[in-house]
Design brief:
It is built from 13 helices and 17 strands. A hairpin with a 6-residue loop joins strand 15 and strand 16. Helix 1 packs across helix 4 and helix 3 runs parallel beside helix 5.
């Protein structure tokens, strides 16, 4: 069925999904895996192994230290060489477990549980133990999302299959190649939440994925919703509005309107953890852009980005920037020697980016026209420059999802998102 509530703002971006027809391939196991102990929102995991310890693939090596935290597992079988701060995709050094691979045992996971045999508590416990977080890029611990306060019951689950950023196709391929497993993961999430309604939301530029689910959902309490292809359709608050018509309050969370949203990759990881007993130590990553052989790869966490580039035929001439994630909300990497982490949706190599001269705001209002949250983006750089941070709250700065639509449309190329992030950071410090 089509989404009843239309998403009218945002922007149309170039498609650029050259790997949409490329099946998922298994990446090589890295010779050395560098596994950060913080790949999620919340407190970092604490190491429970020491240098010279022998570890096996899937073994717990970092234990969550708080409710909002996540376990970390070894992605290889080998020897711990050291536990030390190491460069991470964020540009910061993060305490990491460095493991030298000694063997490559064949993976073999078979069904050990069935949905009907598990209680809500069983499902959430297994998810927490398996270290599952939001794989769409946010990295919020999944077991926390599945444990809302008693005064905020969840009636609706949305599985986010939008994948609205250009270039990225990892979720698209999962929807085509792991359809039944994603459906089973969805049923597990519904049971964990006691949700009555469930929608799998897919943009209309993926008709093959929509068809795949519609053919397999007969008799199941899940509906496919076809949404319009427009960025940022996959943003949590935007998707909730498109599918249910509900608006998350400023500064609020989806649970405030009785909704939980889970990414396709996360849903597949839930199936693997709960039904197969496989913790989260690998994920699908799109490697694309200015590389000679773009691919969708199943990658072990801790694999250096440079290895993935090599597996994709190396860089084309003139690459100047490598982005982890999509071109709109991804982060530029300080080096291609940093590791793949749980939130790595894609690796995007870009060539020369022409320098753009920035001009003063001309008050054209185009940023306001495209803002999916109905904000006045043009005001935030002004407030930032004048140091009027508290006043930004009156303009609902906390409701900004930092999607970048405003900067994409701005003819003066004002650094709006950078100003908003700086304001939020200042407000957090003051609070």
């Amino acid at each position: 069925m089509e989404a009843i509530f239309k998403f009218r703002k945002g922007v149309h971006l170039p498609y650029s999904k050259v790997t949409a027809s490329h099946k998922i391939e298994r990446s090589k196991i890295p010779e050395t895996a560098v596994i950060p102990l913080q790949q999620h929102i919340g407190a970092p995991a604490q190491p429970i192994v020491s240098a010279k310890d022998t570890v096996s693939v899937g073994q717990l090596i970092g234990q969550s230290s708080a409710f909002v935290s996540a376990n970390v597992h070894s992605s290889v079988t080998g020897v711990v060489r050291r536990i030390a701060p190491m460069p991470s995709p964020s540009g910061r050094s993060v305490l990491s477990v460095v493991i030298e691979t000694t063997e490559e045992p064949a993976e073999s996971y078979e069904r050990i549980r069935e949905v009907d045999d598990l209680s809500r508590e069983d499902i959430i416990k297994i998810i927490a133990e398996s270290g599952i977080v939001g794989l769409g890029g946010a990295g919020f611990p999944t077991h926390v999302k599945l444990s809302p306060p008693k005064d905020k019951p969840i009636d609706t689950l949305i599985i986010n299959g939008s994948e609205c950023e250009p270039y990225l196709t990892a979720d698209h391929r999962l929807m085509l190649e792991r359809t039944d497993e994603i459906i089973e993961g969805t049923l597990l999430l519904m049971k964990a939440l006691n949700a009555k309604d469930c929608f799998i939301a897919i943009e209309d530029n993926k008709p093959d994925a929509i068809k795949a689910f519609e053919e397999r959902l007969a008799g199941k309490p899940i509906k496919v919703v076809e949404t319009k292809t427009r960025y940022p359709q996959g943003a949590e608050k935007v998707l909730i509005k498109s599918v249910t018509g509900r608006e998350v309050p400023v500064g609020g969370l989806p649970l405030d309107v009785g909704v939980v949203v889970q990414n396709i990759g996360t849903t597949y990881a839930v199936f693997e953890a709960v039904i197969l007993g496989k913790p989260l130590y690998e994920r699908v990553v799109t490697v694309t852009g200015e590389v000679n052989d773009p691919k969708n790869l199943l990658v072990r966490i801790g694999t250096p980005v440079s290895q993935l580039i090599e597996e994709c035929g190396g860089y084309k001439e003139g690459v100047r920037r490598v982005i982890m994630g999509g071109p709109m909300m991804g982060v530029s990497l300080p080096s291609d020697e940093v590791p793949v982490v749980k939130t790595t949706t894609g690796i995007l190599a870009l060539g020369d980016i022409p320098k753009t001269r920035r001009y003063p705001c001309i008050s054209c209002g185009r940023c306001i026209d495209v803002c999916p949250m109905g904000l006045m983006p043009r005001i935030f750089p002004i407030l930032y420059e004048k140091g009027r941070f508290q006043e930004a709250l009156e303009y609902d700065v906390l409701n900004c999802i930092e999607c970048g639509c405003c900067e994409y449309e701005c003819p003066s190329k004002v650094q709006i998102v950078q100003s908003i992030r700086a304001i939020k950071s200042r407000l957090r410090r003051e609070k």
